[in-house]
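Side project, low priority. Logging it here so it doesn't get lost.
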Amino acid sequence: MASRPIFYYRVDKASGKLNLLSHMNENQPEKKQTPGLEEALKATAQHIDDLSSMATHQIEQTVEQGKAKLNALQEGLRNATEDVAREADYFVHEHPWQAVGIAAGVGLIVGLFLHRD
């Protein structure tokens, strides 16, 4: 039965080249230079870096759009709340006894709901 070759790759830190170590057994490694593979790996790394930059830019844009929408919603809610508060203040000043009666009625209803067994 013929043994299959085992392939190992190693990056030479000094030169930055990728070396292919191919051997039939662990005692006799055979070292081969693969410059074509190096360029392919560098091109792939550059492509991944470009994709990562594009994705980061798109995420940043989406976050900024979300912040702008949230700020607009917050401003609209604040304006609506101020309008309601202003109208309530006007009503209480113009009709104080009606306001007291409404507050008492709402308090009674809430109390009944909370006190139910």
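Brief comment: The chain has two helices and three strands.
Revisit when time allows.
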